[in-house]
Amino acid sequence: MQRKIYVSRLFRMYAEDFAGEAHTTAEYRQGVLRFIAAHTGEPFQQIADYTVVYNIYDWGLNDVHRDPQLRPITFHESVETFHAQDGVLRELYLYDGNFCNRACAWCTVFGSPQGWHTAHTARILEAALAAVAPDGNIKFYGGEPTLHSTGLRDAMRFLRARGFRGLFTIYSNGVKAQTLLDLLESDPQSEAVLNYSIYLGRDAEPLPAHAKTLLETWGREHPQRLFTGYKVLYHAGAATGMTFDRDREPAYHAHQGCVLCFPVLKSTGEFHACPLAIENPAPHFRLGDLTTPASTLFERYHQFRRWATTVLDPAAQARQLTSCAMCQQHLDTLPDYRSL
What we know:
The structure is a single chain. Helix 10 (294-318) packs across helix 11 (323-330). The chain folds into two domains: 1-55, no CATH class; 65-339, Alpha-Beta Barrel (TIM Barrel). By secondary structure, the chain is α/β, with parallel strands linked by helices. Strand 4, helix 5 and strand 5 form a beta-alpha-beta unit. A nine-stranded mixed β-sheet has the order 3-8-7-6-5-4-9-10-11. The protein has eleven helices and eleven strands.
């Protein structure tokens, strides 16, 4: 018996409507299960220890201008959220550099074949384990992770051997399709997110036809394992001053503020507050290093989130910029999060 309950990701998007007020991930999960019990007649005690699994909710279906439709690879939306009383991160990005086999004009990390790469060491991976919940989400981010597939597979095995039981997410352009699929097949609790622009050949060189076919065939056979990111392009990194098609602008989707992603651990040993600004060395993003206690990292990230919504977002709105563009162009005009 699997002891799992599958619900829509709408339960995350409108958490309080279903789970009520929750201050921790554990409280939220209990709230979801109580809601399910109340509306199914199933005694709560019978399902109280069940795992909550979130089905795919394709937010893009509400966008009538989306063309072409993404099938059989669906849009990815994370299910982890930040709760101030968790005391531990629910997600952590692992970033080993911006070395990439593509050089897209809008890349937030300035990825290219001239980029840098430093492999994840045991010390880096131990720091990741200390910072993220054992049942959380570790995200491998670049650059292009499939260019270093042996090291990535070894990192996944290292983390599993030391108790990480959560989800691995690999962000990839999909060009090395078979390598990506081999990585996914090496760990059943893993998923991959493809770049929207490259997958569809929109504002980017498209995937080779054989790679796209291979990925779509595997995605059809392995539901909820292979996704695409959404169409929005952010004014960060190389894309700071670019103008995009209207439906690719954050404003079109009624969101110009900080996306409030979870933080990043760089393979060079620094904890950074934002994956979209990972190549920006400003002190505003510095959370710590390998000597910083996990509890301190968590509290600093909590402070950064408050700074993003109370300092960064209002300043960006005053300049009529997205918050990403504000970080890239005018960050030196703002105090950092430690001033709060």
